Amino acid sequence: MTILCVTGTSTDVGKTVVTAALAACAQGDGLSVGVVKPAQTGVTADEPGDLAEVHRLTGVRDVVELARYPEPLAPDTAARRAGAPLLDLREVVAAVRALDADHDLTIVEGAGGVLVRLGAGGFTLLDVAAELGAPLLLVAAAGLGTLNHSALTVSAARNAGVDCVGTVVGSWPSEPDLAMRCNLADLPDVTGVPLLGRIPDGAGRLDRDAFTSLAPGWFNGVLPFRADERPAIRP
Question: Is the pTM of this model over 0.90?
Answer without folding.
Answer: yes
